[in-house]
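I'll show a typical protein example:
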Amino acid sequence: MTSQQKVSAIPLVTPNGVENKKPMLSLYQQAETYGQSKVVKAVWQSFGLAAFAGAFIALAFVFYITVTTGSSTSPWGMVRLVGGLAFSLGLMLVVICGGELFTSTVLSSVAWAQKQVSTRELLKCWLRVYLGNLLGALLMLTLIMAARMYELDGGRWGLNALNIAQHKLHHGWFQAFVLGVLCNMLVCLGVWMTFASRDALTKAILLMLPVAMFVSSGFEHSIANLFMVPLGISIQHLASPEFFTSLGVTAAQYSDLTLKHFIFNNLIPVTLGNIVGGGAFVGLGYWLIEHAVKPEQQPLAKCFTQLTSPTHLYSVSSSGELPKMPKTIQKLRVQDLMDPKPMTISPELSVYAGLKLLTDENSRSAAVLDDKQRLLGFVSQQDLLRRLWSEEFARGVSDKVSDLMQTEVLTVSPQDSVSELIELMVVDRSKLFPVNDSGILMGTTYKSYEERLRFASASKPSAFPVVDKGVLCGVITREAIAQKVCDIYKV
């Protein structure tokens, strides 16, 4: 793990390193976390992954050209479908192997709309990812030209590439823009669907049809064009006269394949269309719907597995009424009980220095921050001792806090309800109310509410980082909540 890996609110990992069952997030909530992670990622890490993504998409276009070459006698639609399925390899590689692709990165508009990232940070992220994609595409272009792949199948591979590239420059400006909109709606919806699964094979299958549709329908993808059109330009300028003669065409037929035509007739409108299609129509579209039905920030909603609990399963008092929580507790917010100046730790500290700092401060765990006070993760004494144990407590262990910290951490916001946080900390609702999503009781034996409650303890963190707009503003602990409850009851 590197210190640049950011916190995700998806998996449940306690400060003591105990891994628990992951909560069920809505696709929108995952998209929000996904978008923020793109923006706050370290610059060179983001740029490097973007270069990989540009190369992945270029490889996918090589696959597309190969499977569609020499298919003039086959049904047009079937050829396009096969080509589209082949091209889906590119997005699969980006999602499964890791990459920063501009057309999916525009989904960070969701995090921007939630005010988790600034406009400046958003635009800088888009720019570095775009430039990284360009670098990856051009590196792959250099390799393909050096391999003289355009001579495959008697030069028909190169002719196919020329025709594809030239076709892309014959769209009108507005037509290219709209084709870009349609393309990135499908790309971002494909990525959005992958949030529904953590299985790599399932993610790959989910991506196939959206990509196959946009490719077979002729929609325009700006990053794919960063490879495809320069490939056509390169073949037109660098291929020998014999290449064109053998195919019965002339280089002059492709004289409109120029860098100027590419940038102004295709790249600019398609890029803008991709931003509108993915960032506005998909990202902001879902944000508007989500924003309209609930408050802007409800991080605690991310922590709960939603269960339908029949009323008769709740505990009732002797009078037959449901118990009521004191209003004093109901009104409490996280900001009322959090420590606004918690102990924090640097990711660059050694395992020894980190352990000593925690011990000196009499703290079992601490938040790990970057130089902008953004939360990178959580580290505990247990995390550090586990590493020393694995090395038989030898001196000279080179690990830093950043290598050992938990990077997947549940967070809350200052405005969250303390009563809901108490429930999250102490109750496993799936054990207390053993019902499925349809409200059907699960299990073969009946147990009273009191019996279920005894064994419904939750394996959740005892300390939660409090994050506002991506910046740590405090830590709330179970001890602070318990003390407040004692004060309320005058214990």
The longest helix spans residues 259-293. Residues 186 and 210 are 5 Å apart (CA to CA). The first strand starts at residue 344 and ends at 345. The chain has two domains: 27-292, 329-489.
